[in-house]
Every structure is written in C-alpha cells, then in structure tokens.
Write a structure and sequence with these properties.
mainly alpha, 0% strand, disordered C terminus, ABC transporter involved in vitamin B12 uptake, BtuC, 14 helices
C-alpha cells in the first residue's frame, strides 16, 4: 500500500515539475518573440488587428529566431549528455572534445574548395569533419591512462586548440579571417525564415537520442558491461557520436559556436534527476532550451537597442560554470 502511494507521489511530483518546465519554456518563448527594436503588439496579433508589417516581422524574424533558439539549446545540451555518457566523463562536450573546432575546419575547407557551395554541402562537410574529430578524440583517449577525470577534457581542449590554430592559419592565408569569425561566433541576429531550417535535423537527432536512450545508458556503463548484457558497444558508440557530430555541425553551420552549453546543463540536470538517459534526456533538452533563451534575452537587452553576440555571453557564463564544476568535482559520470 505504502509502495503504491510512494509511486503515485513520485509520479505526481514528476508531472508537476514537467508542467512547470513547459510553462517556463512558454513564458520565455513569449518574451523572446516580444523583444526587439521594432514594436509589435502581441495582443493585436492575437486579435488579428496587427498591420502587415507587424505580421511579417513576427513570421519572418521573431518566430524563426525563437524556434532556432529552442532547437539549438535543446540539441546541443543533448549532444553534451551523449558524449558524457559514452566517454564516462562529466567534463566532455562538443567544445571540450574538439568536435566544434573540427566542424569549423570542415566549413573552412568547403569555403576554400567551393565558395559557392550550398548550405547543405557545408553541413555535410562540417558533419564529416566533426565525425573525424570525434574519432580522433576517442583514439587519443585509448592511448592515455584515464586515472584522472580532468585528463579527458584536457586532451580535448588541447586537440581543439591545435585544430583551431590550424583553421585560423588557413583562414589567414586565404584572407577569410573575417568570414571565419562570422561562422564561429554564436549569433542569432541573422536568423530568418528559410535560414534556420537545418536546425530541425539537430532536433531530430535529439529525438533519436531519446528513442535510443536505454542503449546509450547501458553503453555508458563500459564496454565489458554492455557486451555482457548483449549490446554491441561499438555500434552504439558510433551511433551516439554520430548524433553528437550531426548536432554540432548543424548548429555551427547555422548559428555558430555556443561553448560549454552541453557541459553545464547536463551536469546540473544529472545532479537532480540522475544519469539514466531515458529520464534525463527530456530534462536536459528543456534545460538547454531555457538556458539559450535566457542568454539571448540578456544579449538583446543589456545594451538595448544594440545586441551582443550570444556566443560571447554563453561562453562567459558557461566558462564560469565550468570552473565551478571543476572546483566541486563534477558529477557522477566519470572515468
């Protein structure tokens, strides 16, 4: 009797928390479409009395921007969770494993070889480069002793630094430094209808992560445990890292880099919810979306009517949070 009551209590609390999370995202989304230099009255839009210009601003700019923020935040946070589970280290995510830097190198390669290539070709090149970078990162991890939890992100940061230096050198020689800065700095100011739709691929990859969450959780227990439970560890590892690469490349191609987002949000969520991916993925996605919405609102209002690059703001806040996590020992997914 008491067990059934406890189960109902936990279910009720979970539903309440889920409702609050959805409500928070709705409130932040409404604030996101409300903020801007051009004045748009949401009440007039709901009544159908808004001008044609107001409707165009909403449909062409603000709604696509808010959708891009939601998709980017949710998918990048899930990508971080995937990489942390599969490497069994709470300090790994695309910006601490060299994945983002390899994706930007792929974009630069397309710009050098075929400057007029379509966006889809840039995304494919970025994904291939991100996959290559993830493979190199995993190969490096196989060659070093992982007795210290900090060794894994340190290897990733060094690898990313080397690749970033190479990318900068190539961009300098080709007179593309300004373009490289525009590609890699996280910025949603240029997001319009027709220029963000690739992010739905990142959202789809996050959904695949939810569907395969049980396999990712088992794979995160280690190769010997996963094999003993009848799971093809290498196949699940390849799937998870491919999902992370697709998410990373898609977001870098569309809106640039948002560092540390995939590190901080999963760490905070796992401290509360636990490391079971089936239960954690929705909360990580919601937390990532909320974090990006909040950072974007701050970026648009700190120096209103001017706008700060959201990548700068996320990097500063995420860097401080990263240092705090380092000082407090991270979380439960460890080497």
């Amino acid at each position: 009797m008491s067990t059934a009551l406890d189960t109902r209590t936990r279910s009720g609390r979970a539903l309440t928390a889920l409702g609050l999370a959805v409500l928070s995202l709705l409130v932040l989304s409404v604030l996101s479409v409300s903020v801007g230099v051009a004045e748009v009255d949401l009440r007039e839009l709901l009544r159908g009395d808004a001008s044609e210009r107001a409707r165009e601003i909403m449909l062409v700019s603000r709604v696509p921007r808010t959708l891009a923020l939601l998709l980017t935040g949710a998918s990048l946070a899930v990508a971080g969770l995937i990489m942390q589970l599969l490497t069994r280290n709470g300090f790994v995510e695309p910006s601490t494993a060299g994945t983002m830097e390899f994706a930007s190198l792929g974009l630069l390669g397309v710009a050098l070889v075929s400057p007029a290539a379509p966006l889809s070709a840039r995304m494919l090149a970025g994904t291939a480069a991100a996959l290559l970078g993830t493979w190199v990162f995993l190969r490096l991890l196989d060659q070093i002793p992982r007795t210290d939890i900090l060794m894994v992100p340190l290897v990733g940061l060094v690898l990313g630094g080397v690749v970033a230096a190479l990318t900068t050198f190539l961009a300098y020689r080709a007179d593309l430094l300004q373009s490289l800065g525009a590609w890699t700095t996280g910025d949603f100011s240029a997001v319009l209808a027709g220029r963000y739709e690739l992010l739905w691929l990142a959202g789809a990859a996050a959904v695949v992560a939810l569907i395969t969450a049980d396999r990712l959780t088992v794979a995160g227990m280690g190769e010997s445990v996963a094999t003993g439970l009848g799971l093809d560890h290498r196949r699940v590892l390849a799937l998870g890292m491919s999902l992370a690469a697709v998410i990373t490349a898609t977001t870098v191609v569309t809106v640039g880099m948002l560092p540390f987002l995939g590190l901080v949000v999963p760490n905070l969520v796992v401290r509360v919810v636990g490391s079971n991916a089936r239960r954690t993925v929705p909360w990580v996605a919601a937390g990532g979306a909320a974090a990006v919405l909040v950072c974007d609102l701050l970026a648009r209002t700190i120096r209103y009517p001017y706008e700060l690059p959201i990548g700068t703001l996320v990097g500063v806040i995420g860097g401080i949070a990263f240092l705090a996590l380092l000082l407090h020992g991270g979380r439960g997914v460890r080497s």
